[in-house]
Amino acid sequence: MIGLVMCGGKGTRMKSSEEKLLLLYKKPLIEHVLNALENSEIFSNIVCATSNNAPKTREFVSSLGFDILETNGNGYVDDLGKSLSTFQESIFVTSGDMPLLDSDIIKKIVKLVNEENVWTSILVRKNFLQSLGLEAEFFVNYNGEECAYTGISIIDPTQINKLQTVKESHIVLDDKRIAVNLNTKKDYDLICTT
């Protein structure tokens, strides 16, 4: 399985002059994610999907020795979609802005996912997010509950044909380690005060 870290976004909602994934929470945000993937010891390779939107982030992850996959920087969905054809084995996709992500929750997620599913997205319940003081812009109704995407998916790219729609499976997992996804200055301030 490949660990794919999406780290080529503009981070405009953070409203910071610094690149979002290099903001510090003990160490750069992206480094928490990379360390969690490494420490899980379940990935044959860890790849960082970068773009010209975040050149310092690209330079930083490259300096740490991680492989780079250059994307167009047209947004998470577009960049991920174009990245899929690069891989021939299952991919654990995560956003680069999850400072509480750790190896234990990664292993738990991998065990929960049915390998026969083409695409499994990990969700958290809206009320759980709100209990943490966090918000999301987009919710999906899953089993009668409003849920938010965490930014984590497990995908089998070998089963994806560009001409067909892929059935998305979901797993709801209310866990702070995957719920905290820093998109705004408010999110960042909240995590920095805990």
Task: Give the quaternary arrangement of the chains.
Answer: single chain
What order do the helices and strands follow? EEEHEHEHEHEHEEEHH
The CATH C-level class name: Alpha Beta
Report the sheet with the most strands, covering strand number, pairing sense and barrel closure.
8 strands, mixed
Taking all Cα atoms into account, the compactness measure Rg is 16 Å
Query: Average pLDDT across residues?
Result: 88
CATH fold category name: Spore Coat Polysaccharide Biosynthesis Protein SpsA, Chain A
Morphology = globular
- Output the CATH homologous superfamily: Spore Coat Polysaccharide Biosynthesis Protein SpsA, Chain A
Task: Kindly name the structural category.
Answer: alpha/beta
The fraction of residues in strands falls at 25-35%
User: What's the number of structural domains?
Assistant: 1
**Spans where pLDDT lies below 50 across 5 or more residues:** none
Helix content: 25-40%
What's the total number of strands?
Answer: 10
CATH-level-2 architecture? Alpha-Beta Complex
Please report the number of helical segments. 7
